[in-house]
Amino acid sequence: MDVGSESTRLIVLRGNSGSGKSTAAQAIREAYGRGLAWVCQDIIRRTILREHDYPGMANIGLIEQTARYALDHGYHVVLEGILYADRYESMLARLHRDHRGPTYFYYFDVSFAETVRRHATRPQATAFTPADMESWYRQRDCLSFVNERLIDESSSLDDTVDRILSDTGLLDSPHITEIQMEKVERAPTRHERLTRVPWDHSYQDASPPWDPGRPQTAFLQLAEHAGAVHGRVLDAGCGTGENALAFAAAGFEAWGVDVAPTAIEIARRKAAERTLTVTFKVEDALQLQRLQQRFETVLDSGLFHTFDDEERARYVDSLGTVIAPNGTVHLLCFSDAAAGDGGPRRISRAEICSAFADGWHVVDIRATRYETRFGGEGSPAWLATIRRADTPSPPRA
């Protein structure tokens, strides 16, 4: 049964205990980033199954199925372990035969004395003795169906990783984003390029970090001020819909759009469960003109700060195609007061004003908090109130 695609890479690292396979696998994944699965024999056999390594045991099949699943979902795979030839050769031969993309086999050809020396530097050095290692040790236990590339003990970690990356062309290969995005009629955004997965992936297994499962308090406080929210309300990049649902419950006609079909499906289910009427659509916030609608209020809860400079300009233009005359955009984004540099971009007041300089009027920018799934007070944020300064053109088809 065919597995993976022509773009996926399967890299098999074999060798005795202490030969450096796991260290190399970890370094390869760090060099590549997300989109590469590390399938470790020890984790599956010893940690997940707590099984002995005998011929025909369940761990062999689970290792194979794990590798196949990852390849079929667009991941490159580094499969590493002792993987004795007499026990694992049939399974490895099947993977090699069935994989649509290129497969590379490496054998870490390290002497017993060197494996003992390397083992002594590992965190698990006291887990087993040199005598144990000697009983496991096999001299050049190579596979019969393929010529494995030998890595001897003179190769440093950097040399080994550089060689494998060069041989496989891994750093020049498509990431999982590019593979999955083939199904989507748009270019990946900055967030998708950085994480190497589409937006929809974030909603498939669990709630993403930016979804606290409730409306943002900063938006609820707006509703307490007369006129701050008026007319029809659009939540651009609505995720699972909590903000749009809150304003629908308050009596507003509410819409929500997001590029993630899974998020929109969840939002629609929430609306049905709460007996609320909200129009939720799968749509790109960079192409809001396709809605052919006008809104007096647009909410942005954590979308603006995900864009790069070019996307930011396109987004502002897109907002202009749906905002009604005298309409208002309420924009909630991470502020430059947030600590660290991981996660979303930190946005300054000046950047907000610059992005909305042409045809908009920035009424107010105030400090607030952006609440996340992790609880607490949330992260420092800006809540900007922005009005269209001119009469927008009719929506484009």
Task: Kindly describe this structure.
- This protein is of the alpha/beta class and 397 residues long.
- It folds into two domains: 10-174, P-loop containing nucleotide triphosphate hydrolases (Rossmann fold); 217-388, Rossmann fold, CATH 3.40.50.150.
- It is built from 14 helices and twelve strands.
- The strands form two sheets. The protein has a seven-stranded mixed sheet, with helices on both faces. A five-stranded parallel sheet has the order 2-3-1-4-5, with helices on both faces.
- Strand 6, helix 11 (242-249) and strand 7 form a beta-alpha-beta unit.
- The longest helix is centred in the N-terminal third of the chain and has 15 residues, at 58-72.
- It is elongated.
- The two termini are 45 Å apart.
- Mean pLDDT is 88; it is low at 391-397.
